[in-house]
Every structure is written in C-alpha cells, then in structure tokens.
Amino acid sequence: QVQLVESGGGLVQAGGSLRLTCTASGLTFRRYIMGWFRQVPGKAREFVATISWTGGSTDSADSVKGRFTISRDNAKNTVYLQMNGLKSEDMAVYYCAAALSLTGALRRSENEYNYWGQGTQVTVSS
Q: Which of 35, 59, 81, 123 could anchor a disulfide with 20, C-beta 3.0 to 4.6 Å?
C-alpha cells in the first residue's frame, strides 16, 4: 500500500520560513517524479514544484521561484519543500504527490500524478 505522509506545516509570520517533508512508503521511490501542489478552499489545486528521479532537475511555479526549493533524498524516500519569504498568498493546504515515470520528465499537471498525501496546512500571518 502506497503512502505519502506530509509534515512540517504550521503557522508562520509573513517573511518567515517553513520546510515541508513528505515521506513515501510502499513504492520504489527513485522511480517516481515527485511534486508539491497546494490548494485554497474554493479554488483548484495549484502546481508548486516538481523534481526528477535523482533530484538533478527541478521546476517550479513562477509565483514561488526564488523563494521555494524542492529537493529529495532517495535513501530516505523523502522529498522536501523549503519555503522562504512566505507571503499571505502562500497560505494553503500543501500536498505532495508521486508520478511513476518511464522517461524522467518533470510533471506540472496534477492529472499526471498517481499518488497523493493527505496534505499539511500552511498558515501565514501578516
């Protein structure tokens, strides 16, 4: 049974930092492209960042470029999202997701992901 478990969310002041962690089990982690998405109530889920099998390639949404960094540790079956310079508009539930990939191509669309975590809330106070 595949499980993705996020942690690290919480309350932070605007301008502050958080690091989200997602630990996977039940899958061959190194074969999966990993991604982070976020969702605000009443809005569609939004792409945040994605990372390749080895971590050598990443992609992120324009809204977080220069502030958020995605990374992974295949030995620990874990993907991270370091979030710096948090803004009120970053407040959302953050989800990690795994996409089985035969080509290693990065994934920006939620429809391309096979497995999802339960989400972790990030709240930014101004």
A: 81
Q: Per residue in 43-73, pLDDT tens?
A: 999 999 999 999 999 999 999 999 999 999 9
112 strand-pairing partners: none
- Judging by beta carbons within 10 Å of its beta carbon (0-12, 13-18, 19+), is residue 120 exposed, middle or buried? buried
Determine whether 116 is exposed, middle or buried from the number of CB atoms within 10 Å of its CB (0-12, 13-18, 19+). middle
Give the distance, in angstroms, between the CA of residue 113 and the centroid of all CA atoms in the same chain. 12
Q: How crowded is the C-beta side of 63, counted as CA atoms within 13 Å?
A: 12
Q: Are 94 and 37 in contact (CB under 8 A)?
A: yes
Q: Are strands 120-125 and 10-13 parallel, antiparallel or unpaired?
A: parallel
